Every structure is written in structure tokens, then in C-alpha cells.
Known about the structure:
The chain is mainly α. It has 2 helices and no strands.
Amino acid sequence: MWFWILVIFIPIIILAILEETIQFMVNRKVFGKSDKPFLIKQKLHHLKNKFRYKKSHSQ
Length: 59
């Protein structure tokens, strides 16, 4: 009896978790579009700073 209950409920739980993660990723992408250009600019700025510091230390 317990075996059949587990066989029925475990896939339902797994599908529910997958559905929640997919919805989270979609919502994050929709709301994150305005933030992405700023994040890319910040990352490029940090990379430039890293290269500048590396050049100054190596010289």
C-alpha cells in the first residue's frame, strides 16, 4: 500500500518543484531585463580595473 502511495506522490512532488523553478526563472528573466545592462557595465568596469591593476603591478 505504501509503495503505491509513494509511486503516485513522488512524481507529483517532483513536477511541482520543477514547475516552481521554471516559473522562478521566467519571472527572474522578465524582471531582470532592466538590471542586466547595468550588471554588464559593472562587470566590464571591474574587468578594466583588474587589467589596469595587473599592468601597474607588473610594470
